[in-house]
Design brief:
Blueprint lengths: L1 H5 L9 H5 L3 H19 L17 E2 L5 E2 L26 H8 L1
Antiparallel strand pairs: 1-2
Amino acid sequence: MNLLWEAGLVAGAFDADDLFRPDLRIFQMSTKELFDKLKVIVGEKATNPSTTSSPDSPTQIGSTGDQTSSPFVSAAEADSDASSEPRRMSLGPTGAAMQQARS
């Protein structure tokens, strides 16, 4: 406690609302900084300013049915790098074929 007192910090009661009150500017700034850092790693899809959604417009619904407003292309989107047909694994003979093979 003496080290805190010498540093000018006084232990005591405080109003938690003053310490933990969420500020919209802080959320916006931290989100923008995180996006800027991720943009370097992941990349950014080029957007047309006339087609971008404004904050007042509703969120878009992607091909998978989920709501999204991300500027990144989903792997499930038709124009993404994913192949048009998913690879399927063969499951082997059906139950009926297995029963016929046993008899």
